[in-house]
Amino acid sequence: MKKWIPWVLVVAMAAWVLFTLAPKAEKGFKAHEFGRLPVLLNGRIQPFDSVARNSLLQIRTKQTVPFKGERGNGELSASEWLLELMMKPETADDRKVFRVDNLELLDLLKLPDNERYFSFDQLKDRLGELDKQGERIEKIESGDRTAFEKQVVRLQNAILLYQRLKVTLRPPDSDDLAAELVQYQKSIDPGLAALRARDAGGKFDRKALDDFVGRFSGFDTMAKYAYALVVPPEHPELSREQWQSAGTNLMQVARGEPLSPAVGYYASMVTAYRSDRPEDFNNTLRDYNQWLRGKFTPEVNKGARESFYNDLQAFYKALVIYVLAFVLACVSWFNRSEVLRRSAFYLIVLALVLHTAGIVFRMVLEGRPPVTNLYSSAVFIGWAAALLGLVLERLYRDGLGAAIASLVGFVTLVIAHNLALAGDTMEMLRAVLDTNFWLATHVVTVTLGYASTFVAGMLAIFYILRGVFTRTLDEQTGKSLSRMVYGIVCFATLFSFIGTVLGGIWADQSWGRFWGWDPKENGALLIVLWNAAILHARWGGLVRARGIMNMAVFGNIVTSFSWFGVNMLGIGLHSYGFMDAAFKWLMVFIGSQVAIILLGCLPLRLWRSFQSGGTPGTPARQPDGGAPVKPAPASI
Amino acid sequence: MFLDRLTKVFTSLKLTVVCLTLAMLLVFFGTLAQVDLGLYKAQNEFFRSFLIYWGPKGADWKIPVFPGGYLIGGLLLINLIAAHYSRFGFRKDKFGIIITHLGLILLLMGQLATDMLSTESSLHLRNGETKNYSESDRLTELAVIGKVDPRTDQVVAIPDSRLAGGSVIRTPELPFAVRVKHFYRNSLLVAQPTAGFEKSGATQGAGPDVWIREEPRTTKMDERDTPSALVELVADGKSLGSWLVSTRLAAPQTVTFNGRAYDLILRLRRYYIPFNLQLLEFKHDIYAGTDIPKNFSSQVRVLNPATGEDREVKIKMNTPLRYGGLTFYQASFDQDDRGSILEVVRNPSWVTPYLACLLVGVGLGVQFLSHLVPFVKRRLTT
User: Fold this and answer.
1) Which residues contact A93 (CB under 8 A, 6 or more apart)?
2) Fewer CB within 10 Å, N or C, chain A?
3) pTM, to two decimals
């Protein structure tokens, strides 16, 4: 019976993953279908669904909008919310989508401090106050701003984004957009004639002029502020990337250029949505899709694929499974249950499959190697570390590799999730980074170096914590841990060295010097130096098992400094990944690592695993770390 | 006895670990120091030095507090070579380590050679412009340009390293000596009497109505010093007058002596290249609907009279032009997108990192795999 438990768990989790992917019949407006439509934003083709999710992450820090309705509570998907915001903002303005945590800011806006999410209607009367603060804060350098000031800026940006989304498909105060477009086209000739007559100083038709100008200025607002470009380039001389905003296209109509069918379709959808006619909406959506597919097949496919990738939520699901596996692995040490250990192992395999699928999907969507920015570096480090942990688990079968794999997998995906709050994670690469060759070689290798250094550090943490607080660090475990750490430090040295030198060679190709002592370069060098120091200290017999463990934990500090710390200095050529919110967490992490090193330095008689009678069988001795070149004089 | 002990110290792994740890501290503090000192100064103080000096703010004494990059790097190099010489020999099982360390030695030596031998300068071209020289980013020179005939200039360039106050420069190409009365490494000029500024002291040219103030040298990456000098021209023991030259005074000042005109100008140091480069067009592409740069590229024409070459090349980010022992990189561009700035690097040892990377990669790979493979086999069979 017990033999089946691991398989039951895996099948249950896999079923959960598949269940969430199953297509659901949409009642009413087909928002999910709408979310697959391609638009151009941030220089790349993406589906409305991505626009919706990334916007919501920036505004609400979540990808969905829960609501309380008369018929119970529900949840709007990102696409449903975006559809409503773009087409019927007066309803959307009542949704609680703006996240405000800062108490001072809540005070400023006169909002209740027992809530975290607020609607636009709740905020709109206090926007003047917010702008006043914003004007003052604009003059302060971002590094010198207080928490309150940063939150003001964040909220302002969220509101701006929200307002821009509103005018992406329709001008403000429009109702029946489809009919208005017809009237607008009719108003152009008389309007322009009136304009010319007025400019010539003669008599002119004021009504015709006002009618035309009124409509035109609404489209002008759309052209200026629209967030995504929704009109595909039909003209054969335009490049495929030259999408327009609906407003721009409508303004060009006044200059005699044709109205894009896309604008017509969107206008019909707006009208149908606003007059609550789902069937009309869905038919127009289907017609638009067909029209678009005829001319813009790759773009339509890209939108559909990315929308599927969004629905998959591979990283989120992998994260959940990692947590479960971690708990099982930890428990397995205490009750020495092979069933739990195996369950953890199988679950990690499943999580890793999802994790890999997510990475591969991203690579295909972007046409890039796996790591292109800080977000994907977190995802990739987690992936590599989990894979390494899994290999260790396969080799040692003691639950340790599984614990490492699941823990690092989980933590890095949490980091990635927080990095994603900054917006689009598939943004286009700046000129200097636009080279798949170096992204595939330097970036991947150096990231593997980070990942393996972290794995070594995590193993060392387990060694210290288990040794100090539990009786489970027996001689066998101690020995295998030392060997694992040593082996992984070897590979960390290899990857970080090669990665660093490849980075230098890339720099030589693009900036004209191999080594410029730039902070990010120095950070990578620190990892190389430290790993080399660990290896040489071991070969020289200067440290033994425990010393290596402490050094490996310090490797975590070095790596985190190199990964995030140097970006916070705000100098150098690599400061593209600058962010200051993470500073606090970096300090917490470093503090925790220092604490663990201090624990590791406690005299052995205070370690529970080394107290007499600690382990079953022979009393434990200092586990030997391997084969020093010459016998060390004494254990450290 | 003493020699034995010395050998022991220099071949010990302890020294390796100590040096690696010191190197880490050096790199760490050298990185933090960039925030205050700027990249260039921090580099010189921390990495291109034997010792790092420290003194209290305002005091004029400094004591060495930490080994610098050259010292640590040098010690590591000695340690590495000595250890191989005395301990390893050429054993088969140490093949990986030997290759790795060989690569490291090559890398360290190569970087030392780069430090000593490489020069960097930049070449600013507007669309259509042709040049046969590049300019230094921070070094300057005093150029005395004699007008031999309307088509020919004779240029004598005195590098700023020789422009210390009080020095006298004599050369057979010039009929007069140049006496440097004062040299300002960084300066501000104003055109009317201003508090804190002194009269320039010049008697000729643009200088007499200029007031000057010495400035602290800049540490910012995006600024450079603007030096000035007060120079006196002396012929046969007689003064021709004093001129104020400065990189802030863009126009040359003319001196006439024995019927020949000479232009005086303090300018960025020039490096002449034995061919011409013409910028045909600079391009700055952005991603649609954003201001994220997609690509910078310069379409240039190489005109080499010596080889009869006349061809077009495109220089862009990550694809430099290597030609005539020089490498030209796309470095920057003019605000109006109609001019390009190329970084020109002469680095005879540029190839060493490529070889070193290969050697170390192979070495570490061989070494670790030769342990890993048997180990994994053993684990999987038990």
Assistant:
1) A119, A120, A121, A124
2) N
3) 0.84
